[in-house]
Amino acid sequence: MTELSGTGVTPRAGIGRVVWYRGTTDLEDPPDPATVDPDEELAAFESAQEAAHEELERERERTSERLGEDEAEIFDAHRAFLDDPEIVGGIEAAIENGLPAPHAIRRAFTDPIARFENLDGPMAERADDLRDVRDRLLRLVTDGDRMDLGDLPDGSVLVAERLTPSDTAQLDADAIAGFATIFGGRTSHAAIFARSLAIPAVVGVGEELAQVGDGRELVVDGEQGTVVIDPDDEARNRVSVSETPIVEDHVSTAGGREIEVAANVGTLAELDVAAEQGADGIGLFRTEFLFLDREAPPDEEEQYEAYTAALSAFPDERVVVRTLDIGGDKPIPYLDTPDEANPFLGERGIRRSLGPDSDLFEAQLRALLRAAGDHEDSGGSLAVMFPLVASVEELDAALSRVESVAAELAGEGINHAVPELGVMIETPGSVFMAEALAERVSFLSIGTNDLTQYVMAASRENERVSDLHDPRYPAVLRAIRRTVQAGHDGDAWVGMCGEMAGDPALTDLLVGLGLDELSMSAITVPDVKANVPEIDTDDAAERADRILAAQTREEVVRLLSVEEAE
C-alpha cells in the first residue's frame, strides 16, 4: 500500500480501478516544408476551428443543463481562445512558413500556455483552458478519436496528467468512483466541475501518480487530499465512513442559535440533490436557467410550474427565488442586450427588470405571486429577492411593481400572495444603504461573488486580477459585517448565497459575523451543517472581531489558520 498526497477538491472519497486518460494528440516530426501545401493546411485549420466552435456550443448547452450557467461559462472563454488574434495569427504564420496545420497549432499555443504557467495562484491554472482548446483543435485537424469519458466502467477511478473542463464535464457522476491528476489546483475548472458533480477528486498529486498502471485499485480521498494505491482493509473501510453524515434537521450552535443551511440551485434537477444532502430549503434559486438555451422567453404558466416544483420539493422549508439576473456575464441572445464596454457595470439585474425587460419582470412576478398563494397554507414559504440593487430608489420601484401585480391578480380573481421580499447585497451602494433597504424588506442576502468583484474593483472574468477576487480581503469582510449589523438594525434577517458560504473553513467566521442563513452548493451542505453545532457563538464573535481588525489578506489567512488550529 502506498499513499500519495495532493489537493483534495471535494469532501468525498471513493475506491475503484484505475483507467488512464491521455488526451494529448502525439505528433511525429514535421515533414520537409517544401512538401507542405500552405493553402491546404490553412483550410484544414479553418475547418477544425469551425468544428471546434460547434462542439463547444454543444458542450456549453449540456453543461448549463447539468451543472448550471456559472459552470457553463468557461466554454465561452474557450470559444474566445479559438479566435484569439495572437493564437490564430501564430498558426497562420507557422503554416505560411511550411509547417503542417497540427504542428502549427501546437507551436502557436506553446508561448501563451507558458505565460500562464509562470504566473501564481489561480492564473496558472488557466493554462489548462488553453490546453483544452489546443487539444481539441489537434484532435479535429488530425481526425483523432476522443475517449468517451461519459462511458467509463462503473467504479472507475480516472487518472490523468491533467483534466480539462471539457473532459470533466463528460463524466458520469453516478458511475465514476473518482479521479486523480498529476497536475492541477483547487481553483481549476476541473476541480470546480468535480465539486458541482460531487465526484471524489484529488489534483496535483505529482509525478509519482504516473507510476500507477491501469487496473490498479485506488482510493481517492477528496477530503484528506490523498490517494492510496493498493489500499489495505483499513484504507478501504475509511472510504465507507469518509462522507459527512447527512443531517436532515436544522442545526444550532452550541449556544442554541439556529443557523439555516440552504442550497443554491440553477436547475430543477438540482432540487433533488439539495434535498438529498439535507439542505434547509433553497437559499438561491437562479431563474436564469428558464430563459437560457431557447429562442423565446418562458411564459407565465411555465414559470409558475417551475416555482411550484421548487416549493413542492421543500414543502416545509423556505425557497428563495432570485428574479431574472441577466446582463454582465449572462446575456440572453433573444433579448436586446447592449454591447457594453464594461457589462458588469452596465445594464444588468434589477436595472433591466425595471427597464427594457419590464414585461418579463411582470410575467415573472405574476408567476411568483401565484405560486406563493397556492402554497400559503403549507409548512414552507416562498421568498423573492431582487439582484444587483444599488439604491433605495431601485428597491422602491421594484416593490411598487410587486404591489401593482398583486392588485392586477386580485382584480382578475386569481389566487395569490405577496411572498417574503428581500434584496441581494452585491454592490458597495447596497452595503452603505443596507439599513434603509432592510427597513423596506424582510431579508438581505449577501452575494459574495459579485460583492467581492465590486468592492475590490476586480472583474470575475479578468484573469489578470483574479488574486483580488478573494472574499478574505479585509474590505470584503468589513462590508459583510456592516451589512449584517445594518440588516439586523432594520429588523431583517441576513443570509449569504455566494461561494464563501460553502467553505467549511469559514463557517465559524460567518457565524461570528452574525449571519442567520448560509446557502451554498448542495455538496458542501453536510460539512457546513456538521460544523455549526461545534461553534460557541460568543467565542466565534470574538474571533471574528480579531479577524476584522486585520489590514491585509495575508493576516486574515494567518488568523483563520490559527483559529482553526485552536
Polypeptide structure, described:
This protein is α/β, with parallel strands linked by helices and 566 residues long. It is 44% helix and 14% strand. The chain has 23 helices and 17 strands. An eight-stranded mixed β-sheet has the order 1-8-7-3-4-5-6-2. Strand 9 (251-252) and strand 10 form a beta hairpin. The longest helix is centred in the first third of the chain and has 30 residues, at 38-67.
Entry keywords:
alpha/beta; eight-stranded parallel β-barrel; 23 helices; 566 residues; eight-stranded mixed β-sheet
List the helices and strands and how they pair.
Elements: E1 2-5, E2 7-8, E3 13-21, H1 38-67, H2 69-72, H3 74-82, H4 85-96, H5 101-117, H6 122-125, H7 127-141, E4 156-160, H8 165-169, E5 178-181, H9 189-197, E6 201-203, E7 217-221, E8 226-229, H10 233-242, E9 251-252, E10 258-265, H11 269-276, E11 282-286, H12 300-313, E12 318-322, H13 350-353, H14 358-374, E13 381-386, H15 392-411, E14 420-425, H16 428-432, H17 434-438, E15 443-446, H18 448-455, H19 474-489, E16 493-496, H20 507-512, E17 517-520, H21 525-531, H22 537-548, H23 553-565
Parallel strand pairs: 3-4, 4-5, 5-6, 10-11, 10-17, 11-12, 12-13, 13-14, 14-15, 15-16, 16-17
Antiparallel strand pairs: 1-8, 2-6, 3-7, 7-8, 9-10
Helix pairs in contact: 1-3, 1-4, 1-7, 3-7, 4-5, 5-7, 12-14, 14-15, 22-23
